[in-house]
Amino acid sequence: MKAFETTAHYFHRAADQIELSDNIRRLLLTPKREVQVQVAIERDNGEIATYIGYRVQHDDSRGPMKGGLRYHPDVDIDEVRSLAALMTWKTAVVDLPYGGAKGGVNVDPRSLSAREMEMVTRKFIDGIHDLIGPDIDIPAPDMGTNDKVMAWVMNQYNKYHGFSPAVVTGKPVEMHGLPGREEATGRGVGIMAYKLLGRLHRKPQQTRVALQGFGNVGSHAAKILHEMECKVVAVSDLSGGYYCAEGLNIPHVLRYALEHRGQLAGYREAEHISNEELLALDVDLLIPAALGGVITAANAEKVRAPVIIEAANAPIDHEADDMLHHAGVVVLPDILANAGGVTASYFEWVQNRQHYRWSLDRVRQELEHVLTAAFEKVWELAAQRKVSLRMAAYMLGIGRVGRATVLGGII
Ligand code: GLU
User: Fold this and answer.
1) Do 31-163 and 184-337 fold alike per CATH?
2) Residues with catalytic roles
3) Distances from the Cα of 270 to the Cαs of 11, 198, 246, 337, in angstroms?
4) Where along the chain do its domains lie?
5) d(CA 21, CA 14)
6) Residue 82 has pLDDT above 90, yes or no
7) pLDDT at position 1
8) Average pLDDT, the chain
9) How far apart are the CA of 371 and the centre of ligand 1, in A?
10) CA 98 to ligand 1: nearest atom
């Protein structure tokens, strides 16, 4: 299933609930601008490699557009378009003064040396530097990119436009970055898990968790959930899943990953299972924190967890979402569950614009404050309107974007 189809499907369902007119729907669903640029580099072996870079600027009615840059071989215009729309609803759900955008390059970052990665980034920014800016569109890390890539984004942009740290977020702390930005998406997932479990009258100590994905989001989420005393029984990455019925020793797993360039391959203190098996584990909470589209009509029936938190973007397609909903599974949707990253990005942008440094304590406190307010609002709306948490989050997000669009005037 195409990624955009799923997000458009959720959009229309929520739009029905808030009785949005067809004309406003069409306006909100149509991206403001989509660009595609050539990203050609000379590889270390002297060969020329050509990739395609995308930036989709979906909506700016609530403020400058905001969203990550993804480096992955599957990146295409449909995926970027769908992720850009998700950013618009996400920033609106947590009430940040932003619109939504997303970008990416169809390259496998694991196939690149550090120099090649830098070249890809600089060439991509050469192609889009006129279209981004601290008041226009602010990139950030996403799958396959990190703080170092963001430092190159800033440096390349600055060559054209002068010193502008607020043009990109997720930068290294030593280079105008924010302490706590890197952990923020995972920490946000932990905050959401805590709130959701409380509402469902479940105790963290009695919650067995399976976590798919051990990148930036998954590894930090595992750490926070472990600190919350949840029992994390399985984690996974591309090399498969690692399972221990009594609960994994998360500090040990984290140390292992740190010593093996972030990879879990070869971890022997747990049973090795497949990623498919992880999704079907008999656990209390399932957290997909890797790629999109991992739970579909083909495997949704196998999911046994009564609660799912979408740490990844769009891990459940809309057919699977319907099946899970009918089976009584509670799903905390991506646009709320993983909003910690963009919320900390907002703090970084504010810090850069004020030329003032925030402390880690302050970042964590404000993150908790913003995410808790958004969670409570979505929970309340879901109860009031008797809809799923996903529908409530979309209704809240779309409603806010729709109102800003109308207030700003269309002509
Ligand atoms: N890529 C992250 C997301 O999907 C963060 C975006 C940002 O910080 O702007 O939410």
Assistant:
1) yes
2) 102
3) 41, 29, 10, 28
4) 31-163, 184-337
5) 12
6) yes
7) 61
8) 97
9) 14
10) 9
